[in-house]
Design brief:
Blueprint lengths: L2 E3 L9 H6 L3 E7 L2 E7 L2 E6 L2 E9 L3 H8 L2 E6 L5 H9 L7 H4 L4 E3 L4 E3 L4 E12 L9 H6 L6 E14 L1
Antiparallel strand pairs: 1-10, 2-3, 2-6, 4-5, 5-10, 6-9, 7-8, 9-10
């Protein structure tokens, strides 16, 4: 498939729509040995003078092992016709099944981490920071009850966006 590299300042995306409504896949590892998960929490912005993305991964997720081990991760965004694939990648574990194959996705090397040929947009991120979201850090205590009844807290990852690929 044909990709073009886009400068961050030329990216036209509504992050609230792309992350919160369309969802994304967080992927780490190379194209032969990677894992991915669907996410609807994250953000785009600037920190430490660099275009950056935030991603949030629960402790129990297999993808977290890959993100923790690797220097890079990707965020891949898809057209609505891939909703079933994203549902699958968010509902089964790569520990137990080859969900990438089952979802019909084709990994490729995006430069540091795997991404998917079927995506419309890929952000290649170099890990810059991570922070465990401990219960004592919550200022809105209701969020603990609503989102963490099972005590499976997230780790926040900040990645410096090193490359943006858009389908031609």
């Amino acid at each position: 498939m044909a990709w073009e590299e886009v400068k961050p300042q030329d990216l036209e995306v509504n992050p609230f729509d792309a992350v919160g409504r369309q969802w994304m896949l967080i992927t780490a590892g190379d194209k032969e040995n990677c894992n991915t998960m669907t996410a609807s929490w994250g953000g785009l912005g600037v920190i430490w003078g660099k275009p950056s993305a935030t991603a949030y991964i629960r402790q129990s997720r297999y993808t977290k092992e890959f993100v923790d081990r690797e220097d890079y991760f990707t965020l891949s965004f898809f057209d609505e016709k891939y909703r079933e694939a994203l549902n699958l990648c968010g509902s089964v574990s790569g520990r137990d099944r080859d969900k990438i194959r089952e979802a019909g996705l084709t990994p490729f090397d995006a430069g540091g981490a795997a991404a998917f040929e079927e995506a419309e947009l890929v952000l290649v991120c170099r890990k810059a920071y991570h922070q465990y979201m401990a219960p004592e850090g919550f200022d809105v205590r209701e969020n603990l009850e609503k989102w963490y009844a099972d005590k499976d807290y997230h780790t926040m990852y900040i990645g410096a966006i090193e490359k943006i690929l858009r389908r031609r």
